[in-house]
Every structure is written in structure tokens, then in C-alpha cells.
Amino acid sequence: MFFFALFGVRPRLKDAESPERVVVPCPVCLGERNFERKQARTWFELFFVPIFPIGAVRDLFTCVTCGVGLEPEIVRSRAAPRVPPSVDEESATIHCLHCGAAMRRPRQPGWRTLRCDACGGSFEARV
User: For a 10 Å CB count at each end of the chain, is N or C smaller?
Assistant: First the structure.
């Protein structure tokens, strides 16, 4: 007799007890998106049915558009207060998504890939 069992582990998400929503740049959508706080817990599954939990409950922020999950530290660092664009019409102040350093860049329509002067990281931004 042949027995075939399907088993594995998968995180399951549920809404957090205290809801929180932030707007930060999404690494998948490449734009400013809403992220909601969720609670994730990994479960052992047999035939795609959760049997018992593995590990602790952890917080996670998920993009409401594409569903990508980010750790709270990453989301909070990207949601740091931004300095509003300067009054100068020819250039704008942009803040690096990696280190938060301020950069002056000439205004151009559309999305561009920018490289940070301080940390060398690159990211997409509209200037």
C-alpha cells in the first residue's frame, strides 16, 4: 500500500490587535504604498491544513497592493519624517531610503534611479 503525505510549514497572517498603517516606499511596487501591521506565526501543515504552531508570533508590515512583508524596523526606518521639497524650482531635496541622508537633485519628470552620496545605495524616486 502506498501512502502519500503532503506536509510543510507556512506563515499565517492575521490583523494586529492594535492596527497601524504607514505609507512607505514598497521595494516591489516601486512607489509610495500603504503598509498594514499584521501578526505572523509559522504553522506546521498536513495536507494544507494547519496542525500546530511553530515559533513565536511576530509583527510584520504588509503592502496592501502587492502583499510583500517587511520587518517593522525596515518600515519604521523608511517612514522617517521627510523634509519637504525646497522652494527652489530647479532642484529638490531627496532623502535616501537606506540611510536617510539628504541629497539635492535637479527636478526631472518621471521616475529615476538615484545613488546616495553618503552610503552609495541606489533607489527609485520621482524628483
Answer: N
Residues 6+ apart with CB under 8 A from 23: 32, 33, 34, 35, 79
Residue ranges per domain, the chain?
A: 8-78, 91-126
Q: How many CA atoms lie within 13 A of 114 on its CB side?
A: 26
pTM above 0.90, yes or no: no
Q: What is the DSSP secondary-structure string of 41-106?
A: EEEEEETTEEEEEEEEEEEEEEETTT--EE-HHHHHHHTSPPPPPPS-SSEEEEE-TTT--EEEEE
Q: What are the grid coordinates assigned to 55, written together?
A: 515559533
- 15-35 average pLDDT score: 84
H or E element that contains 33:
strand 32-46
